[in-house]
Amino acid sequence: THSHTLHHMHMLTHSHCNVHTLSNPLSHAHAHTHSHNPSHAHAHTLSLVTCEGSTAVLTCSLYTSIFTMFHYGANYGRTDSTTCSAGRPTSQITKTDCYATNTLTLVKSKCDGKITCSVPASNSVFSDPCVNTYKYLSMRYTCTTGR
């Protein structure tokens, strides 16, 4: 019954975090084998990819707050040629070493400690780390009931 925790790589709904949470707060812990601290039994790690021009909405529903921890990371740019590539000319998706170095700082300032927050995937927010490349905002963040 835990497959629902694994198929949300590119999509967030407002309800998937709360399945089984109240009756069994540990139900998600074993589904994620990432290197988070086992003492954070109530932490739930999510991945979110948002194509340039759209807005990322980070949501933790029943959890109390969002923490974007450093080792999970965030990047506005392009690190592969397949993500957010549909309908794009080859010239816009070939540069795969594109990083906005301020991504994590900006996301943390907008989102840390909140239940939900919105981050536009746009040059107006992050500046433009690679002109003429179609970018995307890629994030891993943690919902936690910690203090």
TrEMBL record:
Annotated SUEL-type lectin domain residues: 50-144
Keywords: Lectin, Repeat
Transmembrane segments: none
Single GO molecular function: carbohydrate binding
Coiled-coil spans in chain: none
PANTHER family recorded: PROTEIN EVA-1
Protein name per UniProt: SUEL-type lectin domain-containing protein
Protein source organism: Astyanax mexicanus (Blind cave fish)
Highest classification ranks of the organism: Eukaryota, Metazoa, Chordata, Craniata, Vertebrata
